[in-house]
Amino acid sequence: MTRTDQWGCPITAEPDDITAIEQVVGDYLTMSPTIATRMPTLLDAGPLAQATLAMLLTQSHRPAQVAQARELAAGAQRDATEVSQRERHHLDAAVAWADGRIGDVVDAFGAALAEHPTDLFALRARYLLLFSSGRVPEMVAMLADARQHWNNDLPLASYLDGMEAFAWEESGEYRRAEELGRWGVEQEAGDLWAIHSVAHVMEMEARRDEGVAWLDGHAGVMGGPGFAGHLWWHRAIQLWAIGRFDEALAAFDDGVYPPRSEEGLDLTNAISLLARLESLGVDVGDRWSELADPAASRVGQHTQPFNDTHYALALTRAGRLDDGRRLIEGMRAWSQGDDSAAAVLRTVGVSVAEGMLAFGLGHWQQAVDKFDPVADDVWRLGGSNAQRLFYTIVADTARDQAGATA
């Protein structure tokens, strides 16, 4: 029987299963750590729930989870005999996502949103995929269209403010972004994405002390796991930029990198912060070694070139040259495929990773020779403007060192 969820979208499921899906979708939007304990409730809650679970597993970018996602998505699509067209779009997206066909996922969610603009999972997932693909103007357009159909009576509606704020920030519209981000935080003090959007504005405008104060003002939500660690990273890079290196290192230890974390965002936060500190001559101690095993564990599933290029530096700086080479060999092999990541690896990812390995070994000119030809394509790796500064810092450091030793 087809019912509707709390956002008014058709859903073929029993009431208890609808509640389970709604809870997970809400966690996905708000980046709540409770999503991990709620995801298993989707396994036996019908085709849409299984497709949703498959898509969340795919985003782990781990071989075992992606294999499980592929099986779940195929089974859900096979077993869905009486579902709405909106749900079929989600099923198509789940299958395509597990196969790495990101363009098809974006299109499937676009079709779902054209029919049901308040489809929250489709909106959030499509937004993040556009972001990771560097398609910022489409993020702005998507949020502008969504605004015409959402109202404040819909659950979690205020979170669209933070989403739109970040899209405008990445577009360079800082005043508009900050206003929306602050408004989002006023509506919901725990909106991590809105807090994050304002932090980005302050980073891009070099408002360093103000940026630290802004994040310190939200220390309560920064204390949690998951995306909260990325807010610690934003605080740390502001401290780095104003020369408060001891505090930046303390932030690394206190919140940027949870011990032994294998999460991609935690690792890239940590790696880029250490690279920034070392670029200014700061001794980071044995912190690279903390990242070695977790980075090595990510070899084998090369669907996130942005992350892989970071791992290459971490493994090399930790003295794990064999693992670094194994990572790059895996990237080269993956680049021969036909999914979205393969195209990015061929265009820019492998070359940047090779440059990172050379950089970590102190082969400065070799690093420059790998970085420079693809400098204009680094945006294809994804990540924000602030995150991609990592590549500029490493390339500039290599260039300076190559000039000094010439």
What proportion strand? under 5%
Low-confidence stretches: none
The CATH topology of the domain at 1-133 is: Serine Threonine Protein Phosphatase 5, Tetratricopeptide repeat
Look at the structure and give the mean pLDDT: 93
Strand order of the largest sheet: 1-2
Summarize the biggest pleated sheet. 2 strands, antiparallel
Structure description:
The chain is mostly helical. It has 22 helices and two strands. The model has no long low-confidence stretch (mean pLDDT 93).
Core attributes:
406 residues; mainly alpha; Serine Threonine Protein Phosphatase 5, Tetratricopeptide repeat; two-stranded antiparallel sheet; 2 strands; 1% strand
How are the SSEs ordered, and which strands pair?
Elements: E1 2-4, E2 10-12, H1 15-30, H2 35-38, H3 47-58, H4 63-79, H5 85-98, H6 102-115, H7 120-132, H8 136-147, H9 159-170, H10 174-187, H11 192-204, H12 208-216, H13 219-222, H14 228-241, H15 245-256, H16 264-279, H17 287-296, H18 305-317, H19 321-334, H20 340-360, H21 364-371, H22 385-405
Antiparallel strand pairs: 1-2
Helix pairs in contact: 3-4, 3-5, 4-5, 5-6, 6-7, 7-8, 8-9, 9-10, 9-11, 10-11, 11-12, 11-14, 12-14, 14-15, 14-16, 15-16, 16-17, 16-18, 16-22, 17-18, 18-19, 18-20, 19-20, 20-21, 21-22
